Each structure stands twice: as structure tokens, then as C-alpha cells.
Amino acid sequence: xTLEDHEKAPVYAGQEASSPRYTLEELKEHAEPLFxxxxxxxxxxxxxxxxxxxxxxxxxxxxEQFMKAKVD
Length: 72
Hints:
The protein is mainly alpha-helical. The protein contains five helices and two strands. It has helices at about 5-10, 25-30, 30-35, 40-45, 55-70; strands at about 20-25, 55. Strands 1-2 form a two-stranded antiparallel sheet. The protein is globular and about 35 Å long.
């Protein structure tokens, strides 16, 4: 399953355990079609977590949290 196909797949509770995980670089390459953000936003949301793997759902949640964070 490609990242583009995964975007269309429904996300259900408990699905993350079996969902494919991607590197931050792979997610950055597809930031706009998957999350409707530029890769710079993804980089900011994942600052300090470069060596980990994430599901598309986890990445989406992290980006939403980053976008809603208050700026002082």
C-alpha cells in the first residue's frame, strides 16, 4: 500500500497497531497530499523525533496538535 492509498483507507480504533509505519522522510515527501500542509509544518510538528517511525494516523494527530498549539 502506498502512502496515497493509505490516505483513502478508513482509520478505526485499534487499527494503528497493524498500520504500516513510515519514516519522517517518507511522510515529508507526501505531506501535502496526505495532510494538506507543507513539509516544513511536518518538520516542526515532529521536531526532535527524526529517528522514529509513525503511522499516517499518528502523524495526522501530531500535526493537528502542532497547528493548534498557542504561540507566546
